[in-house]
Specification:
Layout (H helix, E strand, L loop, with lengths): L2 H21 L3 H22 L16 H8 L7 H23 L7 H21 L4
Helix pairs in contact: 1-2, 1-5, 2-3, 2-4, 2-5, 3-4, 4-5
């Protein structure tokens, strides 16, 4: 199994976990898992494109990944507007994940959770569809 396929599998597992956590009413952990599912499928995409993570790491930083999707995924995502949209969503997902994981006073509403879930599913669905089915 190629390394990008392992990341794709992790994304599928994180999405499943996010859904279970959301259904159980565990908002903060589900937000985190939705983010990680989107981050993992983004990493799978970059690895599929044969980009090399820095310093022998398995992937890129959470801060750098949206920009890499914006600037380096053109072979799979030809529309600049779509690349920008995917990158924007991933960056917003990351910000809310930080809020959910580290800011105890931050309000995590059902509305925020539903928006997070929808945005993550959009990124995951689109990038999963551009990767080969192997």
């Amino acid at each position: 199994m190629a390394s990008w396929q392992k990341w794709q599998m992790m994304a599928d597992e994180s999405l499943t976990a996010a859904t279970i956590l959301q259904d159980a009413g565990s908002q903060r952990p589900s937000i985190s898992r939705y983010y990680y599912a989107a981050f993992q499928i983004s990493t799978a995409t970059l690895l599929y494109l044969r980009l090399t993570p820095p310093n022998g790491a398995e992937g890129w930083s959470h801060v750098d990944t949206p920009d890499l999707i914006r600037t380096r995924s053109e072979p799979l995502v030809q529309s600049r507007d779509l690349r920008n949209n995917l990158a924007r969503r991933l960056a917003e997902l990351y910000k809310l994940r930080i809020e959910a994981d580290y800011l105890g006073g931050a309000e995590i509403s059902e509305r925020k959770l539903k928006l997070q879930a929808s945005s993550a599913r959009y990124v995951i669905k689109f990038l999963s569809e551009v990767l080969p089915k192997e």
